[in-house]
């Protein structure tokens, strides 16, 4: 007997890629369970699937930076802070260095991240926590089908009490921009190109080199155009060094509400005679609207 739940959840996360750098992603999760009927004549109660299995998936990958530990460009070491890790991503033209609490990372034994590798990882984690009558689980991870433009971004929210505080988690998002009431494909393409595989940092989180906490290896391999950001949040201290070419520093927190407002203000400043309405998505099916 099989039981399925489509659109169980959406995982929003970032991962390290040797070709693209740090990549924000959003994948929809479908689940298919196989097994015998239990005493309630069910494979598994839908309530348990929607709560327990969703929670396992969220705790394993959602709002984390996913690290392919077999990638030779990545090294992971213990930080001098308790329960914190250093992550050094030694790309020649796009080196990225972090310190974060260990819970902010998901480590997968593979050399690259894709739907198949993350699916295998999650299925293994979930199987260990299923009741005996459930013999099999099959996950499907899939990006949202987007007819228009989209972009991938990574960020962190220091004021957030939940997992959004992690300094390197992300989303794959769409955007709708209206100029004088008419939707503008050109403006949408422009912003999606501008923010493709971008790290969005908040100006107030920027610090100097002598203030950042990174591994000794990271400090020895920083480039002149690296910029540094750090903050304390309930889970611990977060530090990141990002090169200028893959970074945009905004004058606000990077919530979707303020990012929609930021884009609207940027458009208005470039052409004050026009009116703009920005519908910015954060991952799948949620977002904010701002006008200027």
Report a brief summary of the structure.
By secondary structure, the protein is an alpha+beta fold.
Could you characterize what this model shows?
- It catalyses: 7,8-dihydroneopterin 3'-triphosphate + H2O = 6-carboxy-5,6,7,8-tetrahydropterin + triphosphate + acetaldehyde + 2 H(+).
- Belongs to the PTPS family. QueD subfamily.
- Pathway: Purine metabolism; 7-cyano-7-deazaguanine biosynthesis.
- It comes from Thalassotalea nanhaiensis.
- The chain is α+β, with helices and mostly antiparallel strands.
- The protein has one domain (2-291): 6-pyruvoyl tetrahydropterin synthase/QueD (Tetrahydropterin Synthase, Chain A).
- The chain has helices spanning 46-60, 115-127, 185-194, 216-220, 256-270, and strands at 2-17, 21-35, 65-68, 74-78, 84-89, 96-101, 105-108, 134-142, 150-155, 169-179, 182-183, 198-202, 206-207, 226-233, 236-243, 247-250, 276-281, 287-291.
- Strands 9, 10, 11, 12, 16, 17 and 18 form a 7-stranded mixed β-sheet that branches. A 6-stranded antiparallel β-sheet has the order 4-5-6-15-14-13, with no helix packed on it.
- Strand 10 and strand 11 (182-183) form a beta hairpin.
- The longest helix has 15 residues, at 46-60.
- The relative contact order is 0.16.
Question: Which labels suit this protein?
Answer:
292 residues, alpha+beta, Tetrahydropterin Synthase, Chain A, 7-stranded mixed β-sheet, 6-stranded antiparallel β-sheet, 5 helices, 20% helix, 42% strand, globular, 6-carboxy-5,6,7,8-tetrahydropterin synthase, 6-PTP_synth/QueD_sf
């Amino acid at each position: 007997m099989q039981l399925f739940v489509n659109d169980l959840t959406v995982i929003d996360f970032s991962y390290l890629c040797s070709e693209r750098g740090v990549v924000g992603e959003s994948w929809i999760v479908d689940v298919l369970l196989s097994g015998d009927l239990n005493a309630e004549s069910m494979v598994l109660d839908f309530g348990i699937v929607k709560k327990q299995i969703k929670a396992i998936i969220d705790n394993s990958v959602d709002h984390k930076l996913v690290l392919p530990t077999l990638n030779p460009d990545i090294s992971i070491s213990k930080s001098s802070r308790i329960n914190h890790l250093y992550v050094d991503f030694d790309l020649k033209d796009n080196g990225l260095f972090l310190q974060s609490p260990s819970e902010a990372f998901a480590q997968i034994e593979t050399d690259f991240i894709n739907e198949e590798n993350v699916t295998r990882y999650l299925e293994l984690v979930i199987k260990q926590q299923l009741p005996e009558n459930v013999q099999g689980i099959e996950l499907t991870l899939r990006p949202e089908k987007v007819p228009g433009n989209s972009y991938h971004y990574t960020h962190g929210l220091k004021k957030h009490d939940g997992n959004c505080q992690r300094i390197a988690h992300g989303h794959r998002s769409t955007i709708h921009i209206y100029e004088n009431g008419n939707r503008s494909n050109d403006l949408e393409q422009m912003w999606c190109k501008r923010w493709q595989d971008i790290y969005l940092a908040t100006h107030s989180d920027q610090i100097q080199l002598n203030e950042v906490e990174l591994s000794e290896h990271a400090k020895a391999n920083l480039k002149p155009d690296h910029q540094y950001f750090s903050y304390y949040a309930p889970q611990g201290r977060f530090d990141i060094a990002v090169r200028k070419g893959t970074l945009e520093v905004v004058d606000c927190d990077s919530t979707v509400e303020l990012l929609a407002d930021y884009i609207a203000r940027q458009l208005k400043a470039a052409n004050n005679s026009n009116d703009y309405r920005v519908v910015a998505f954060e991952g799948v099916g949620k977002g904010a609207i701002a006008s200027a």
